[in-house]
Each structure stands twice: as structure tokens, then as C-alpha cells.
Design a protein that fits this description.
With 281 residues, the chain is of the alpha/beta class. It has 8 helices and 14 strands. The chain has one domain: Glycoside hydrolase/deacetylase (TIM Barrel, Alpha-Beta Barrel). Helix content is 31%, strand content 21%. It binds zinc ion (ZN).
Length: 281
């Protein structure tokens, strides 16, 4: 077949993906979702079922949405798990750690009407036992709070490191780099935070500026939830290649796009065998 540099592309041949992740299921998510929907960006919202509806007293409002609101509020986005009571899961004995994960997932799935794919570690804390339990619970990935300041895809989806927090002073510099960079690798720009921080810090304009900039530059970018990205990567890893590279079978229910050279895009349709054209030596 000659020299090839096959690489993953996202749906419709996009080379990049942008995603957001917001924790705790606070009431400010309502305003945040209005902004996200206006600019057609996608986010994953990580909720603790056991604290839904709680309205703690404090210096700023961190009250949680009601259980009855969850389904409709997050409909255009993704619901992820965040532990039943937001405990430090790495500090708990296994039985209780497993309960925090399982009970949260079971109840959120009942509200969402579908299996959950994504989790965010409370306080960003985890250990090997927590990771293994999340896998057995059926999760496909879990987010940390470690900034990469980079756009690489995760090596371990259970240590999914974001690019940066929305309060990072480099936020717009990274957004611009992401939009302008022409890379030979697939790239992901991943921003996270908490909705209540915009009220606390009086800086709603930060997120509006970011997502409006991404919307203006949406050419070649896939806007997806965390779970959609992980499912897509899983499908990509399932591709079956012939030894001579001329045939690729896509056994999944997901259409997949790859590049087989700098400017050749192949659309590998779900459940189909694709014959790859001979490339120049
Ligand atoms: Zn949290």
C-alpha cells in the first residue's frame, strides 16, 4: 500500500474536539447551560445524587438543583457521576467507597434514563481501588483536576486530565492556540470548573468569551460531551485492519473518520468494510 500515516479524525473529518466539564450540579448550571446552548457547545455535568436539592448556608450560593429538574435541565448535555455525597473516595474503606460510586450511578441513571459513562473524582482524589471500582461500575472514564496545558488525548481515560480550569489566566491564550494550531495529531481542548464559581468570582463573562470564541471558530472542531468522545475513541480502537492495509472493517455502530495521508480522509461507515485507495510511494 505504500507509506501511510493513519490517524484518528473526529466525526465529519474534524481534527479537533472541544469539551467542557462542570461539577456538583449547582443551580448556576441553569445559567451556564443557557450560555452553552446559545453557542452550541457540549458539556458533561457531574452530579452527586445524595446532595441534590441541598441548600447549605455559606458565604456564596452552592445550592444544588432538584432531582426533578435533572432530566430536562441536562437533556442537551451529559450527566456524569461525582460520588453520592462528594466524599474523598480515596480515603474510604472499599465497601463504603463502592456504595458511594454504585448508589450514585444507579440513581442518576434512573433520572437520566440511560447508563452513565463519565465520572469526576470529588476533590480530584483517587487511588487504584477507586479506578477499578469505576471500571466495574461500567464507567468509561474519570476526570482529574490536573491541568495539562496541552491538547493530547488521554492515555488512560480513568485519569482524564483537563487542559485547564476556566479561571486559568492562560485560558484564552490556550483557546487561540487550539484554534490556530495545525497539528498531525488529533487534539482535544478540555475546560472544567464549577458553575457557582462565576457568581462567587463575578466573572460570567469569562465563560461567555470562551464559548463564543469557540463558536466563531467552529470549522474543523467537533463539539462533544466527555462520554461521546470516550465512546468514539473506543469505537476507533475496535477497527479491524488487513495486514496489507487495504481493508479496514468497522465492526461498531459508530461511523469513524481517519486520515490515511496528509490530505486523504476516509469515512469508515458503521458495520462496513472500507477499501483504502493505493497511496503514492
Ligand atoms: Zn465536586
Amino acid at each position: 500500500m505504500g507509506k501511510r500515516f493513519d490517524r484518528l479524525l473526529f466525526p465529519n473529518g474534524a481534527a479537533k474536539v472541544f469539551t467542557l466539564s462542570y461539577d456538583d450540579g449547582v443551580n448556576q448550571d441553569k445559567r451556564l447551560i443557557r450560555i452553552f446552548d446559545r453557542y452550541k457547545v457540549k458539556a458533561t455535568f457531574n452530579l452527586g445524587y445524595g446532595v441534590l436539592g441541598h441548600k447549605p448556608e455559606g458565604p456564596f450560593d452552592i445550592s444544588k438543583v432538584e432531582k426533578e429538574e435533572v432530566k430536562d435541565l441536562y437533556e442537551n448535555h451529559e450527566i456524569g457521576g461525582h460520588g453520592l455525597y462528594h466524599s474523598d473516595l480515596s480515603s474510604l474503606g472499599d465497601p463504603y467507597m463502592m456504595y458511594e460510586i454504585m448508589e450514585d450511578k444507579k440513581e442518576l441513571e434512573r433520572l437520566a434514563g440511560k447508563p452513565l459513562k463519565m465520572f469526576a473524582y470529588p476533590f480530584g482524589l483517587f487511588n487504584e481501588s477507586v479506578k477499578q471500582t469505576l471500571k466495574k461500575a461500567g464507567y468509561k472514564g474519570a476526570r482529574t483536576v490536573r491541568s495539562t496545558y496541552d491538547f493530547g488525548l488521554p492515555e488512560d481515560p480513568f485519569e482524564l486530565d483537563p487542559t485547564c480550569h476556566h479561571n486559568d489566566e492562560r485560558l484564552m491564550e490556550l483557546a487561540e492556540r487550539f484554534v490556530k494550531e495545525r497539528s498531525m495529531r488529533p487534539e482535544m481542548f478540555y475546560v472544567w470548573g464549577h458553575g457557582y464559581e462565576f457568581d462567587r468570582d463575578g466573572n460570567w463573562e469569562v465563560i461567555e468569551k470562551l464559548v463564543s470564541y469557540m463558536d466563531e471558530n467552529r470549522e474543523g472542531i467537533w463539539f462533544a460531551t466527555n462520554g461521546e468522545i470516550l465512546s468514539y475513541l473506543e469505537a476507533y480502537r475496535s477497527l479491524e485492519y488487513s495486514v496489507d492495509g487495504s481493508m479496514i472493517y468497522n465492526p461498531t455502530a459508530t461511523d469513524i473518520w481517519i486520515a490515511t495521508s496528509f490530505d486523504t480522509i476516509e469515512h469508515l461507515k458503521a458495520g462496513n468494510l472500507t477499501r483504502i485507495k493505493e497511496t503514492e510511494l
